[in-house]
Design brief:
Elements lengths: L8 H7 L7 E3 L2 E7 L3 H18 L4 E5 L2 E6 L9 H14 L1
Antiparallel strand pairs: 1-2, 2-4, 3-4
Length: 96
């Protein structure tokens, strides 16, 4: 599946404008989202979990109080793939 092929660093950098606010950090696509409360952050995580499960593509993430930080990559290809960009776009939609 082409969506699960590892992208070169140049390809990743060329696609970063598709997902404003996301950065390439240590071989992952990273972004932190902030919310008004822990409950809102946790609700956001629950929504992302449902999308990730449907995509069979699960993010690395952390949650500290009102912040959720994502570090996306495709583990089975050893880097970033188009699937990570798709998930990042879905996360952006959910963050609204």
């Amino acid at each position: 599946m082409a969506e699960r092929q590892k992208l070169s660093e140049a390809e990743v950098r060329a696609r970063l404008p598709e997902i404003p606010g996301w950065e390439l950090v240590e071989g992952t696509l990273q972004k932190t989202f902030r919310f008004a409360s822990f409950v809102q952050a946790f609700g956001f995580m629950s929504s992302v979990a449902l999308v990730a499960e449907a995509m069979n593509h699960h993010p690395d993430w952390t949650n500290v109080y009102n912040r959720v930080t994502f570090a996306l990559n495709t583990h089975d290809v050893g880097g970033i793939s188009a699937l990570d960009f798709t998930l990042a776009k879905r996360i952006e939609e959910l963050a609204g």
